[in-house]
Amino acid sequence: MIVEAKSAAPPTEDERRLRAPWRSVEIAFWVLAAAAYLLLPHQLPLLAQAAIGGLFALSVDLLLGIAGVMSLGHAAFFGIGGYVAGLLAQSGWGEPLSGLVAAGLVAGGCGFLSSFLVLRGSDLTRLMVTLGISLLVMEAANRMTWLTGGSDGLQGIDVWPIFGVWEFDLYGRTAYVYALGVLFACFLLVRRVVHSPFGLTLRGIKGNPRRMSALGTPVGRRLVGVYTLAAALAGIAGALLTQTTQFVSLDVFGFDKSSEALLAVVLGGAGTLYGAIVGALMLMELETLLARITPEYWQFWIGIAFMAQALYARGGILGFTVRLWTRLRRGVAAPSRTAP
Asked: Are 171 and 45 in contact (CB under 8 A)?
C-alpha cells in the first residue's frame, strides 16, 4: 500500500500572525536594554523609571492601539497598584513579587468593575467617564487619611530584598534589573495576547465593532477582558514605582500620569507595543534634556516637538523609522539606470 505524501498548504495571514516569530530587531532591542546595565551605570535610576513608564504606556497601548478604547483616567489603576504595594509593605509584608501580584489583582478587579460603566458609551463618553473615575479615586484616597496618609502619602515603606538576596540600592542597579525583568515578562504576556485569536478580534473590534458583532463576536465581553488586563498591568507598574522608590503619594493618581502615558504611546507609535516602551523612554529623555536647557520653557518645546511629530512623523517614531527603512531598501534594491 503506497501512501502519497501531501504537500502542506502555505500558512494563511492569520496563522502567521498567531505564530508571531521573534525577529532579529526585537531580540536586539531587549539585548540592548539588558546591556544598558553595563553601558550606562550612572543612568540606571532614570532607566528604571523609564521601564516603569514603559510598562504603564504598554497597558495604555493595549487599550488604545489594539482595542481602540480611549482613556484619560488610566492613572487610577496605576495609583491603586502603587498604594496596594505600599500598604502591604507598610503592614510588614514587603516581599516584592507577591506585592506585584496583589497590586495587579486588585487593580484588575477594579478595572473589571468599572469597565461596565466605562464601556457603555462612545469615545467621548469614555474619555469623560475615565477621567471622572480617576478624580473620584484620587479624592477618596485624599480623604482616607487613616489608610493612605492623605496628602503626605505613605511613609516607612520597607521592601524586602528580591528573593532575599538583592537589596534595592541608591544607585538603581537592583531597581533597573527588577523593573526591566517585570517589563519583559509583562511584554511577553501582552505580545501573546495580541497575537492570539482574542487579540485578532480586538483589532477587528477597533476597525468595525458593528461588523464584528454581526459576525457573532461578543464585543462587550472582549472589551471587558482587555480593559481588565490593561488595568492589571497598570497596577503592576504602579507597584513597581512604589517598590523601587519606597514611597507613594497622591501624585500617582494625577491627570499628568495618564496624559504622559498617552503621549508616550502617540510618540512611539500606537498599536505597535514597542512604540509604547520607546515613546516612554524618549519622552523622559526629552523632558530631562529640555528641562536642563530651558528650565522655564521646557513645556513649550515639548509642545513644539509633538506638533512636529504629528505633522511630519505620523505613526510615531516606529512608524517613521519603518517608512524610512523601507524607502532606503527600495532605493538600494532598485536597478541603476544608465544613460543610453
From this structure: yes
Collapsing DSSP to helix, strand or coil, 22 comes out as coil
Contacts of 190 (CB under 8 A, 6+ apart): 58, 62, 233, 273
Q: Is 145 exposed, middle or buried (0-12, 13-18, 19+ CB in 10 A)?
A: exposed
pTM of the model: 0.90
Mapping DSSP to helix (H, G, I), strand (E, B) and coil, where does residue 103 land? Answer: helix
Per-residue pLDDT band at 3 (split at 50, 70, 90): very low
Residue 64 burial by Cβ neighbours in a 10 Å radius (0-12, 13-18, 19+)? buried
Q: How far is CA 316 from each of CA 28, 150, 195, 300, 306, rounded to the nearest angstrom?
A: 20, 38, 21, 20, 10
Q: 199 falls in which pLDDT band (50, 70, 90)?
A: very high
Angstrom distance (rounded) from CA 193 to CA 100: 20
The CA R_g of the chain, rounded to the nearest whole Å, is 22
Q: What pLDDT is stored for residue 333 in this prediction?
A: 67
Q: Please give the C-alpha separations between residue 177 and each of 9, 30, 44, 168, 260, in angstroms, as whole numbers.
A: 44, 12, 9, 10, 23
Q: How far apart are CA 254 and CA 251, in angstroms?
A: 5
Q: Is 306 exposed, middle or buried (0-12, 13-18, 19+ CB in 10 A)?
A: middle
DSSP 152: G
108 has pLDDT over 90: yes
